[in-house]
Design goal:
3-stranded antiparallel β-sheet, 258 residues
Length: 258
C-alpha cells in the first residue's frame, strides 16, 4: 500500500494517471478536510500542524509505510516522518513547499506587518480566482491555453479539472474553498524550522524529486534535502505540477525504490 499526500487543496483525482502507473500497488490518499465538507469552518488560528494531527489520526497504527507527498503534502509527510520514525519506511518528496532559513526569516517579518495579502504570490493569485464555472468543457478550453498547464497532456488536464471542480446549482464551483487555500498559503514556513533542525535525524529513506523549472522548490532547499536523501532527481521539462506533467517518469522513479 502506498499513501499519497496531495498538494494544497488538491483532490487525489488529479493524480489519477500517476496512480494508474503505480499499479499493481494500491494507493490511498490523505484528504484535506474541506474537500469532504465545504462548509467546514476554518480553525482559528490555522497552521499546518492542524493537518499533521489529521495525519496522525488516519495513520495511528501504520508502521514501515510508503508515502508520496507533493508540494504541501511533501512538507506534511516529511514533518510527520520526523515525528514518527517507525511510521514511514520510505518517503518520496515531490516539489515540497519547503523554504530556506532566509525566506523563513523574511516571511516572519511579512507576517508581523500583515502584508501577506499584498506580497504572497499564491494568495494574490487565489483571492481573485473565479469560483463558479459553466461547464468542464469550457473550463478545459480556457485552461488549455494557460502557460501554467502547458506541460500537461489533455488527459492530465481533464483529471486536474475533475479534481478542481464540483457540481453545484450554478454549474460547477471550486471543490476546495478559496478561504482555506489562502489561509494555508498564509501559514507557509510554519513547519520549516522544525524540519530543518531535525532533518539530520530522519530515519526514513528519503527520495526527493524536483521539477527542472520549478517556481516553488528553490536551490537552497534542494541542497539541504539532497544531503539527507537516498536519491535526488530533477526531471527535465517539468514545473511544480510535475506529478501531472510526467506521471509515467515519476512512477518509474517510485517503483525503482520500492
Amino acid at each position: 500500500m502506498i499513501h499519497l499526500f496531495p498538494a494544497n487543496g488538491i483532490s487525489d483525482i488529479a493524480y489519477t494517471e500517476l496512480i494508474k502507473f503505480l499499479s499493481p500497488h494500491s494507493v490511498t490518499s490523505f484528504t484535506y478536510p474541506p474537500l469532504n465538507d465545504r462548509e467546514l469552518q476554518l480553525p482559528t488560528p490555522l497552521n499546518w500542524n492542524y493537518f499533521d494531527q489529521g495525519i496522525d489520526k488516519q495513520f495511528t497504527s501504520l508502521t514501515n509505510g510508503i508515502g508520496i507527498g507533493h508540494s504541501l503534502g511533501g512538507t506534511l509527510l516529511l514533518n510527520n516522518a520526523l515525528k514518527n520514525p517507525s511510521r514511514w519506511k520510505t518517503i518520496f518528496i515531490v516539489e515540497p513547499a519547503l523554504f530556506s532559513k532566509w525566506i523563513n526569516m523574511t516571511y516572519k517579518f511579512v507576517r508581523f506587518l500583515k502584508l501577506e495579502d499584498f506580497t504572497h504570490p499564491m494568495i494574490r493569485v487565489t483571492k481573485p480566482r473565479r469560483e463558479f464555472f459553466d461547464s468542464k468543457e469550457t473550463t478545459f478550453k480556457r485552461w488549455r491555453n494557460r502557460h501554467v498547464f502547458s506541460f500537461l497532456s489533455d488527459a492530465s488536464l481533464k483529471y486536474y479539472i475533475d479534481a478542481s471542480l464540483i457540481e453545484c446549482d450554478k454549474g460547477y464551483q471550486l471543490r476546495f474553498p478559496k478561504n482555506w487555500e489562502c489561509e494555508i498559503y498564509r501559514n507557509m514556513c510554519s513547519l520549516d524550522p522544525f524540519i530543518w533542525e531535525n532533518l539530520p535525524n530522519l530515519k526514513s529513506n528519503l527520495i526527493v524529486i524536483g521539477g527542472e523549472s520549478s517556481n516553488t522548490f528553490f536551490e537552497s532547499a534542494r541542497r539541504r534535502l539532497k544531503k539527507q536523501s537516498v536519491d535526488f532527481i530533477a526531471i527535465p521539462n517539468t514545473s511544480h505540477l510535475l506529478p501531472f506533467e510526467t506521471p509515467l517518469a515519476l512512477s518509474r522513479i517510485i517503483l525503482k525504490h520500492l
